[in-house]
Specification:
There is one protein chain. The protein is elongated and about 100 Å long. The protein is built from three helices and 25 strands. It folds into three domains: 97 residues, Immunoglobulin-like (Sandwich); 104 residues, Immunoglobulin-like; 107 residues, Immunoglobulin-like (Sandwich). Strands 10, 11, 12, 14 and 15 form a five-stranded antiparallel β-sheet that branches. A five-stranded antiparallel β-sheet has the order 17-16-19-22-25, with no helix packed on it. With 338 residues, it is mainly β.
């Protein structure tokens, strides 16, 4: 293009005239372009798939207008909600499937351009199901294990503008993990995906786009996974009350009777390869494996011992717990047995 202009005096003359035009004429020309369907600014919505009763943020970008000195007017459903300098504007959305009509008008140098869009929030929620350990009947939820897996389930409720729900069985799911589309886990009815846990101190981004059978209704959701350190707790297994889950033992534990049974519960260790390995140590020496251990002091007198426990799931994670055991009531030998 530069060589063509240098060889043609006609092109050179045209450019010289354009540079001498007043700035007001240039602005008017841009405004006319916008009003006839050209896009002199870009209107975007964040998040891309907003949830019902949430807030969506409108953002504006232009390569031809100086937005710093421009004015912005935003109307929602025909009602003016914002007027002032160009900046991000928040719009409050309604119920699932409701349509919010938004019009944005930008004015500069006596000319204006506008764009309109519709926002239709759909209800999509992601639920994590870590494949990790937790005690039976535990009311809480285990955490994302180190070196394990997490099952992510999408719960979708897509409705049209009239509030009528579409058939859940026909929904299609498009899964993305760390920006990569997972084709073999996507498709009609594939509402769940198995994701490998991220490395410790890192995160993994999981997102899904859910669409109705005819593609007229679309929603989405995303979440960030981070693995957590596992732990193990020791509880007393009372012969009458059972496992005392209400009180985890720590520091020291006194054996008041002839014997005491302790139970270990691992939290958030990966169970992809099976149940975690539980290894008990008494005074530093390996005692036994399994979730329970029964301690029986022998001889007479008072004494103490150290008890430690290691819970592991292969090379993916390890948790430890320690107790100082106190036994006996009178002086005597310090023999301790199982």
């Amino acid at each position: 293009m530069y060589n063509r202009i240098m060889r043609s005096g006609f092109f050179t003359t045209l450019i010289s005239v354009a540079l001498l035009l007043p700035m007001g004429v240039m602005a008017q020309s841009l405004g006319e372009l916008g009003n006839t369907g050209g896009e002199i600014f870009t209107l975007s919505v964040s998040p891309q798939y907003p949830a019902p009763y949430s807030t969506a943020t409108l953002s504006f970008i232009s390569g031809s207008l100086d937005l710093t000195n421009a004015k912005l007017a935003v109307s929602v459903g025909g009602k003016n909600v914002y007027q002032g300098s160009v900046q991000p504007v928040a719009v409050t959305l309604g119920r699932t499937g409701s349509i919010t009509n938004v019009t944005a008008t930008i004015s500069s140098g006596g000319a204006s351009s506008n764009q309109s869009l519709t926002i239709q929030p759909e209800d999509v929620v992601l639920i994590t199901e870590p494949v990790s350990s937790s005690p039976p009947l535990y009311p809480g939820k285990s955490l994302v294990p180190i070196g394990g897996d997490v099952r992510v389930v999408a719960m979708a409720n897509l409705r049209n503008a009239g509030g009528v729900a579409s058939n859940v069985a026909t929904y299609s799911y498009a899964w993305t993990v760390d920006g990569v589309q997972i084709a073999n886990s996507s498709g009609i009815g594939k509402s769940a995906i198995m994701v490998a846990s991220p490395l410790q101190y890192r995160t993994r981004e999981v997102s899904v786009v859910v669409a109705s059978a005819d593609g007229s209704l679309v929603g989405g959701a995303s979440l960030s996974l981070s693995s957590e350190q596992p732990s193990v707790r020791i509880y007393e297994n009372d012969p009458l009350l059972g496992i005392r889950y209400e009180h985890a033992l720590s520091g020291s534990f006194s054996i008041s009777g002839t014997e005491a049974t302790l139970y270990a519960a691992p939290f958030s260790l990966s169970t992809t390869g099976g149940a975690p390995l539980m290894q008990w140590f008494l005074n530093g020496a390996s005692a036994q494996t399994g979730s329970s251990i029964t301690l029986r002091p022998t001889g007479s007198g008072q004494g103490n011992a150290s008890l430690s426990l290691t819970a592991s799931a292969g090379q993916s994670g390890t948790a430890t717990a320690n107790l100082s055991l106190i036994f006996g009531a009178t002086s005597g030998t310090n023999l301790f047995g199982l």
